[in-house]
Inverse folding.
Protein backbone atom coordinates (compact mmCIF):
# COMPACT_ATOMS: atom_id res chain seq x y z
CA UNK A 1 0.00 0.00 0.00
CA UNK A 2 2.64 2.47 0.91
CA UNK A 3 5.53 2.87 -1.32
CA UNK A 4 9.07 3.30 -0.12
CA UNK A 5 9.09 6.90 -1.08
CA UNK A 6 6.01 7.57 0.96
CA UNK A 7 7.53 5.80 3.91
CA UNK A 8 10.72 7.79 3.56
CA UNK A 9 8.88 11.11 3.29
CA UNK A 10 6.86 10.26 6.36
CA UNK A 11 10.01 9.57 8.33
CA UNK A 12 11.57 12.81 7.22
CA UNK A 13 8.40 14.69 7.96
CA UNK A 14 8.16 13.11 11.38
CA UNK A 15 11.73 14.05 12.13
CA UNK A 16 11.21 17.58 10.84
CA UNK A 17 8.12 18.04 12.95
CA UNK A 18 9.95 16.68 15.99
CA UNK A 19 12.82 19.07 15.30
CA UNK A 20 10.36 21.99 14.95
CA UNK A 21 8.61 21.04 18.21
CA UNK A 22 11.96 20.76 20.00
CA UNK A 23 12.99 24.15 18.57
CA UNK A 24 9.76 25.77 19.76
CA UNK A 25 10.25 24.28 23.22
CA UNK A 26 13.83 25.54 23.31
CA UNK A 27 12.66 29.00 22.25
CA UNK A 28 10.08 28.97 25.04
CA UNK A 29 12.77 27.98 27.56
CA UNK A 30 15.07 30.68 26.17
CA UNK A 31 12.25 33.25 26.47
CA UNK A 32 11.78 32.44 30.14
CA UNK A 33 15.53 32.41 30.81
CA UNK A 34 16.32 35.41 28.61
CA UNK A 35 16.21 38.64 30.65
CA UNK A 36 14.97 40.46 27.55
CA UNK A 37 12.21 37.99 26.87
CA UNK A 38 8.54 38.87 26.49
CA UNK A 39 7.78 38.41 30.21
CA UNK A 40 10.57 40.70 31.38
CA UNK A 41 9.55 43.27 28.74
CA UNK A 42 5.99 43.06 29.96
CA UNK A 43 7.17 43.41 33.58
CA UNK A 44 9.25 46.48 32.68
CA UNK A 45 6.26 48.04 30.90
CA UNK A 46 4.04 47.40 33.93
CA UNK A 47 6.66 48.90 36.28
CA UNK A 48 6.86 51.95 34.05
CA UNK A 49 3.07 52.25 33.99
CA UNK A 50 2.89 51.90 37.80
CA UNK A 51 5.54 54.63 38.19
CA UNK A 52 3.47 56.91 35.96
CA UNK A 53 0.36 56.16 38.02
CA UNK A 54 2.28 56.89 41.23
CA UNK A 55 3.59 60.18 39.85
CA UNK A 56 0.08 61.19 38.72
CA UNK A 57 -1.34 60.27 42.12
CA UNK A 58 1.34 62.28 43.94
CA UNK A 59 0.68 65.26 41.66
CA UNK A 60 -3.07 65.01 42.30
CA UNK A 61 -2.50 64.77 46.07
CA UNK A 62 -0.27 67.87 45.98
CA UNK A 63 -2.85 69.73 43.87
CA UNK A 64 -5.54 68.80 46.37
CA UNK A 65 -3.44 70.08 49.29
CA UNK A 66 -2.81 73.34 47.42
CA UNK A 67 -6.52 73.63 46.67
CA UNK A 68 -7.44 73.11 50.34
CA UNK A 69 -4.89 75.75 51.41
CA UNK A 70 -6.15 78.22 48.78
CA UNK A 71 -9.79 77.69 49.81
CA UNK A 72 -8.85 78.25 53.47
CA UNK A 73 -6.99 81.46 52.58
CA UNK A 74 -9.96 82.69 50.52
CA UNK A 75 -12.31 81.88 53.40
CA UNK A 76 -10.11 83.84 55.84
CA UNK A 77 -9.86 86.76 53.43
CA UNK A 78 -13.63 86.76 52.92
CA UNK A 79 -14.13 86.76 56.68
CA UNK A 80 -11.73 89.68 57.07
CA UNK A 81 -13.46 91.62 54.30
CA UNK A 82 -16.89 90.98 55.81
CA UNK A 83 -15.74 92.18 59.24
CA UNK A 84 -14.05 95.21 57.65
CA UNK A 85 -17.28 96.11 55.81
CA UNK A 86 -19.27 95.80 59.04
CA UNK A 87 -16.77 97.94 60.94
CA UNK A 88 -16.73 100.59 58.21
CA UNK A 89 -20.51 100.81 58.51
CA UNK A 90 -20.30 101.10 62.33
CA UNK A 91 -17.73 103.92 62.35
CA UNK A 92 -20.23 106.73 61.52
CA UNK A 93 -22.40 105.58 64.44
CA UNK A 94 -19.39 105.72 66.78
CA UNK A 95 -18.54 109.19 65.43
CA UNK A 96 -22.10 110.42 66.00
CA UNK A 97 -22.17 109.06 69.55
CA UNK A 98 -18.82 110.70 70.28
CA UNK A 99 -20.03 114.07 68.98
CA UNK A 100 -23.27 113.75 70.93
CA UNK A 101 -21.40 112.98 74.18
CA UNK A 102 -19.02 115.90 73.63
CA UNK A 103 -21.98 118.27 73.28
CA UNK A 104 -23.99 117.13 76.31
CA UNK A 105 -25.15 120.12 78.33
CA UNK A 106 -23.51 120.44 81.79
CA UNK A 107 -26.81 120.19 83.71
CA UNK A 108 -27.70 116.94 81.80
CA UNK A 109 -24.31 115.29 82.41
CA UNK A 110 -25.39 113.55 85.64
CA UNK A 111 -28.58 111.97 84.31
CA UNK A 112 -28.71 108.20 84.14
CA UNK A 113 -29.69 107.99 80.49
CA UNK A 114 -26.60 110.06 79.54
CA UNK A 115 -24.45 107.65 81.58
CA UNK A 116 -26.16 104.76 79.74
CA UNK A 117 -25.24 106.27 76.39
CA UNK A 118 -21.63 106.66 77.60
CA UNK A 119 -21.61 102.96 78.52
CA UNK A 120 -22.95 102.02 75.10
CA UNK A 121 -20.24 104.18 73.50
CA UNK A 122 -17.55 102.41 75.60
CA UNK A 123 -18.95 99.02 74.50
CA UNK A 124 -18.66 100.10 70.88
CA UNK A 125 -15.04 101.12 71.49
CA UNK A 126 -14.28 97.81 73.25
CA UNK A 127 -15.87 95.89 70.38
CA UNK A 128 -13.72 97.76 67.87
CA UNK A 129 -10.57 97.08 69.90
CA UNK A 130 -11.38 93.36 70.19
CA UNK A 131 -11.86 93.26 66.41
CA UNK A 132 -8.35 94.66 65.89
CA UNK A 133 -9.41 98.22 65.08
CA UNK A 134 -7.14 101.00 66.28
CA UNK A 135 -7.45 104.74 65.98
CA UNK A 136 -4.93 106.56 63.77
CA UNK A 137 -3.09 109.12 65.87
CA UNK A 138 -2.98 112.32 63.88
CA UNK A 139 -2.93 115.53 65.91
CA UNK A 140 0.60 116.94 66.17
CA UNK A 141 2.00 114.28 63.82
CA UNK A 142 3.66 114.91 60.47
CA UNK A 143 1.16 114.74 57.62
CA UNK A 144 1.22 111.27 56.00
CA UNK A 145 -0.96 110.92 52.90
CA UNK A 146 -1.27 107.16 53.47
CA UNK A 147 -2.90 107.78 56.88
CA UNK A 148 -4.36 111.28 56.63
CA UNK A 149 -6.63 113.14 54.26
CA UNK A 150 -6.10 116.90 54.27
CA UNK A 151 -9.29 118.94 53.93
CA UNK A 152 -7.84 122.39 54.58
CA UNK A 153 -4.73 124.33 55.54
CA UNK A 154 -4.50 126.26 58.78
CA UNK A 155 -2.04 128.32 60.76
CA UNK A 156 0.75 126.30 62.29
CA UNK A 157 3.93 124.40 61.60
CA UNK A 158 4.23 123.41 57.97
CA UNK A 159 3.47 119.77 57.22
CA UNK A 160 2.10 119.05 60.72
CA UNK A 161 -1.47 118.05 61.49
CA UNK A 162 -3.09 120.94 63.41
CA UNK A 163 -6.48 119.38 64.18
CA UNK A 164 -8.57 116.32 63.38
CA UNK A 165 -11.93 116.82 61.66
CA UNK A 166 -12.82 113.10 61.62
CA UNK A 167 -10.91 110.24 63.25
CA UNK A 168 -9.29 107.62 61.10
CA UNK A 169 -9.04 103.91 61.88
CA UNK A 170 -6.86 100.92 60.97
CA UNK A 171 -7.82 97.25 60.98
CA UNK A 172 -4.81 95.00 61.62
CA UNK A 173 -2.45 97.53 60.08
CA UNK A 174 -4.61 98.32 57.04
CA UNK A 175 -6.26 101.71 56.81
CA UNK A 176 -10.05 101.42 56.97
CA UNK A 177 -10.68 105.14 56.92
CA UNK A 178 -8.00 107.86 56.81
CA UNK A 179 -8.08 110.67 59.35
CA UNK A 180 -9.56 113.85 57.92
CA UNK A 181 -7.23 116.61 59.12
CA UNK A 182 -6.28 120.28 58.96
CA UNK A 183 -2.63 120.68 57.99
CA UNK A 184 -0.39 123.63 58.92
CA UNK A 185 0.97 125.69 56.05
CA UNK A 186 3.64 127.51 58.02
CA UNK A 187 3.72 130.78 59.90
CA UNK A 188 2.91 133.94 57.93
CA UNK A 189 5.92 136.13 57.33
CA UNK A 190 5.42 139.82 58.11
Amino acid sequence: MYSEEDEHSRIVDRRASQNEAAGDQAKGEEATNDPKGPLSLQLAEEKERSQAYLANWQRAAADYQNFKRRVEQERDELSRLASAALIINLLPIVDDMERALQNVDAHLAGLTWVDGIRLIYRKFQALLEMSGVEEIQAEGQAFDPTLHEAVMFGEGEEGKVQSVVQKGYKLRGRVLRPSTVVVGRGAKSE
